[in-house]
Write a structure and sequence with these properties.
Diaminopimelate Epimerase, Chain A, domain 1; globular; 289 residues; 2 domains; 17-stranded mixed β-sheet; mainly beta
């Protein structure tokens, strides 16, 4: 029987981004990609990202997180999921903050309201080899990548940013006019992105607001992606399309992103929702190693 059988979990969402939180602190088991896919396929526990908590590795942190996409692959960051984890750790306590660690670094979280949280996503990485890209581009505010005919491209010259994950952000006139479900998977796997990439299309409304849709690496079309919202805000500010604080509207809700000039950190504020609590049925892991 899988060590995950009968384990409790939380089904949540952050601005519509489907999240499952699994607390394995005190246990030695590490979720396998096969188990992650089994959880995503089971009724009641489908997710865009699975946030698995382990015992802290670094003093002063509350937990170490492993993050899985629904195809079983690993994710370096998930801002919406991190807010959900913060709610799970802080709900019913007198504490207003927690510190979480992932392979990508340390994330500080602050409670703003009962279901509203801010996550410090850290500084963006902007060099071509930090994204990473397969070849050098001296200016990552816009790289050579075109979708569609060269004389009339559908999209072109995306900005690239790493916010724990690689992101490519295309600025377009109308996000509704782009068939992201078709274009997204091709761009995710473009040879330019050796670790694949999250693909976003962004429509600037004014200096303080944008509309964003995201094809998420390893998860597909999603109602929201926190790290993509951070990447889009950084990309827009670098092009002087917006200021350093911007409200980003995604299909699942709004996120407020601030790229702080004082220390280069990106802060993301948004809502979380608890949908239900559950336990994993043993039979969902049959055949999963």
């Amino acid at each position: 029987m899988s060590p995950l059988a009968q384990r409790p979990f939380l089904k949540m969402n952050g601005a519509g981004n489907e999240i499952v939180v699994l607390d394995l602190r005190g246990a030695s088991h590490v979720v396998t990609p096969e188990e992650a896919r089994a959880i995503a396929a089971a009724p009641g526990s489908h997710f865009d990202q699975l946030m698995v908590l382990h015992d802290p590795k670094t003093p002063g942190t509350n937990a170490f997180m492993r993050i899985y996409n629904n195809d079983g692959s690993f994710s370096g960051a998930c801002g919406n999921g991190t807010r959900c984890v913060a709610w799970a750790l802080l709900d019913g306590t007198d504490f207003d903050g927690c510190v979480l660690e992932t392979e990508a670094g340390i994330l500080e979280c602050r409670r703003e309201s009962a279901f509203g949280f801010t996550v410090d996503m850290g500084p963006p990485r902007l060099r071509w080899d930090e994204i990473p890209l397969s070849r050098e581009f001296p200016d990552t505010r816009g790289i050579e990548l075109t979708v569609g005919p060269t004389d009339a491209p559908v999209m072109h010259t995306p900005a690239v940013v790493n916010m724990g994950n690689p992101h490519a952000v295309f600025f377009v006139e109308d996000v509704a006019a782009i068939d992201l479900a078709t274009i997204g998977p091709k761009l995710e796997h473009d040879p330019l992105f050796p670790e694949r990439a999250n693909i976003s299309i962004a429509q600037v409304v004014d200096r303080e607001s944008m509309i964003l849709r995201v094809w998420e690496r390893g998860a597909g079309l999603t109602l929201a992606c926190g790290s993509a919202a951070c990447a889009a805000a950084v990309a827009a500010a670098r092009r002087n399309l917006t200021g350093r604080t911007v409200r980003i509207s995604l299909p699942g809700g709004d996120l407020l992103i601030q790229w702080r000039a004082s220390d280069d950190h990106v802060l993301m504020t948004g809502p979380v929702e608890l949908e239900h609590e559950g336990v994993f049925a043993p039979d969902i892991f049959e055949g999963a190693a």
